[in-house]
């Protein structure tokens, strides 16, 4: 079984990913979605958590062997960055969504010297905006961002385009394409629902998949 399939099975098993094409979720943006992902739940499931952190560590070893520090996104990526940093015996830190309004007004927590080769640890990539903000913040202080290691990606074109424009690589432990195959095989969705979910992923603003 591939890494992507293992993580997909794990996320489905603990309901960190819900697939509900017949009763769509509504995202904060108003978009109707057949999928909802909450990877924070992986932290509460030790066996799944081990799979996830080992997968992220493998991604860093395989794709970013020069990594000198891992940086979590705030807040969901912080715990994962700490656990991955422990596995790899690397320093870790995290990037706040905004600067503190007290003390030294830090946005970046942890000692990150200019030139440090950093990998960003992210739990979920949907449109890609938040993780690119983190990359930009790290670049502003002189860090060399090797790329992103994420638990799951929807693979939306908007995120693919944004990451390409920002010149940042992302490698995810699993993705929607693998997830829908596993979900159909294991009975979480009907086989005919696979195409509906991929249709949503390809164009979230087109709601024709609902009917």
What does this structure look like?
Residues 100-104 have low confidence and may be disordered. Helix 1 crosses helix 6 and helix 2 packs across helix 3. The longest helix has 18 residues, at 46-63. Helix 4 (129-140) links the parallel strand 8 (117-125) and strand 9. The relative contact order is 0.16. The protein is built from 7 helices and 10 strands. The protein is globular and about 50 Å long. The protein is an alpha/beta fold and 211 residues long.
Notable traits:
single chain, 211 residues, alpha/beta, 6-stranded mixed beta sheet, 7 helices, 39% helix
* Structural class assignment: alpha/beta
- Strand fraction band? 15-25%
Gyration radius (Cα, Å) is: 17 Å
Query: Which strands sit side by side, in order, in the main sheet?
Result: 7-6-5-8-9-10
Average the pLDDT over all residues and give the rounded result.
94
Poorly predicted parts: 100-104
- N-to-C span: 34 Å
Describe the main β-sheet briefly: 6 strands, mixed
Could you state the order of secondary-structure elements as H and E?
HEEEEHEHEEEHEHEHH
Number of strands: 10
- How many alpha or pi helices? 7
Helix content range of the residues, please? 25-40%
């Amino acid at each position: 079984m591939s890494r992507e399939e293992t993580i997909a099975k794990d996320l489905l098993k603990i309901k960190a990913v819900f697939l509900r094409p017949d009763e769509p979720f509504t995202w904060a943006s108003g978009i109707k979605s057949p999928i909802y992902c909450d990877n924070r739940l992986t932290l509460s499931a030790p066996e799944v958590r081990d799979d996830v952190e080992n997968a992220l560590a493998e991604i860093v070893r395989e794709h970013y062997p020069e990594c000198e520090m891992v940086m979590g996104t705030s807040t969901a990526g912080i715990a994962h960055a700490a656990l991955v940093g422990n596995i790899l015996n690397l320093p870790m830190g995290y990037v706040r969504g905004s600067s503190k309004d007290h003390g030294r007004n830090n946005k970046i927590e942890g000692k990150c010297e200019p030139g440090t080769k950093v990998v960003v640890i992210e739990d979920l990539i949907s449109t890609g905006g938040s993780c690119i903000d983190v990359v930009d913040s790290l670049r502003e202080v002189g860090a060399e961002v090797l790329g992103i290691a994420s638990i799951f990606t929807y693979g939306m074109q908007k995120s693919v385009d944004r990451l390409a424009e920002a010149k940042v690589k992302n490698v995810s432990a699993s993705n929607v394409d693998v997830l829908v195959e596993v979900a159909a095989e294991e009975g979480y969705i009907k086989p005919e629902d696979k195409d509906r979910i991929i249709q949503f992923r390809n164009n979230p603003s087109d709601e024709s998949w609902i009917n």
